[in-house]
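Here we describe the complex-level prediction in full. Unlike the single-chain runs in Section 2.1, the two entities below were treated as one system.
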Amino acid sequence: MARAARSIAVVAPANRLAPEAAEKVASLARAAFGEGLRLHFHPQCFLSSGHFAGPDEARSAAFLEVANNPAYHAVWFARGGYGACRLDDALFGKLNRAAHVKDYLGYSDMGVILGRLAREGVGRSAHGPMPTDVSRPGGEAAVLRALAWLVDRDATALEPNWRADAPAYAFNLTVLSNLLGTRSEPNFKGAVLMIEDVAEHLYRTDRAMFHVTSSDNVRRCAGLRLGRFSKIPENDPPFEMTVREIVEFWCQRAGIRFLGEADVGHDADNKIVPFPTSIALTS
Amino acid sequence: MARAARSIAVVAPANRLAPEAAEKVASLARAAFGEGLRLHFHPQCFLSSGHFAGPDEARSAAFLEVANNPAYHAVWFARGGYGACRLDDALFGKLNRAAHVKDYLGYSDMGVILGRLAREGVGRSAHGPMPTDVSRPGGEAAVLRALAWLVDRDATALEPNWRADAPAYAFNLTVLSNLLGTRSEPNFKGAVLMIEDVAEHLYRTDRAMFHVTSSDNVRRCAGLRLGRFSKIPENDPPFEMTVREIVEFWCQRAGIRFLGEADVGHDADNKIVPFPTSIALTS
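The structure predicted for the assembly as a whole is:
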């Protein structure tokens, strides 16, 4: 007997999604999964309000609507940018049973939501590609990887160091730095923490590492892995340290184990890192 | 009887000071204070090592040397930039009695040191102009204001909302965001908190306000005041909120009183905000 179709809703809690990107993703999904996948782009994805995909209220309402709708198996975040932290703080108290047995996938600015859901034990959050990645060179592979995990739990989509029996988190370093001390900060005790970033000066990365590795919570992690740091603007004067040297410096200073590299980043190769969950999810 | 000369040491825990700036400041100081002031630029100010005014070890040693030297009444930080958080963490345990009865003046990246000294009850930290400000348009006034406070405790140098009977802090917002949860985070309970920033995109300011106003410690402050945010790069797309609207939004959301503006910023008008001190200092 054929399995019932998986149903995935796309919303954009930060920046808007280009309609052309949505069309490309829909087309890829049809070709790859046919009737096995129903992909719904919530109209909110295409709203525009200054920096954001619609006003805070519209983004909050769209997320709450799809999270609480039992018709959807997963919420797939359309795009990062900036804005997830502006969602209505009270919506997280309104998430229902349907929201609690759902996947949530995204990265970059979406770390604010993924971290909060993980902290509060809501569903299964995962760090991985988003629909907007279809516009990157080779981005079709990223989108299909995300869908393969959401639809089929394809293990080849997973970050190669991820293990089912060891908790792991992945965050954009700048977003992680900005969520420490907020309600989006999960418990890192015993977990592998992977970091990546894009378009940050090395001095900013160094400063963020000071901040993040000073956290008692982060210091209790099992170790840190370095994802890719891309599109680094020129430092003036030259910083004279690589990202890896920076990260190893701060790990050593903080007594955090440096575990090597991680296959995550703002690029088409970005693999999936499911966060710990306190509940058994339907497969 | 003439008062003994005040003696001030200048060191650079972050970026290097231009020798021409030091010469200008020395010349201004001689003209304004004559024999009443001895200004010593530590040679470390002019070292260069990649981004920094010399290696971490040299910057740490110079700061510890002048802080612990009873011949100096004050340590005046030469310049911000980035690097204060890289100082040897152990040096703060080596500060002696002389360091404990001294003024420390600077701003921007120096907030990391000022916050730590204030937290640990070492001397009197203050947020205010630095020698490098002499290179700004009208910067001579900033330098003379700093010296007037360090030498004469000139009350006209003080930020107009500062009151001797109410604790107050001032920080660069981005630096403050990066020192929360570190050993540089002072106790803000009941204090007026002033913020300023330079060259940050509005989305970054919004995100930093989310982070800072989520802190339980910051939420216990008496209220927040908005200094100047200058040289803001263009936001793409337009952010459609002013800095004041951003700050008021997050204050309201966090239940923090917004108290209005503050006369601090990365400019020649930057006034002095002495931090609370747990000891009586010689005047």
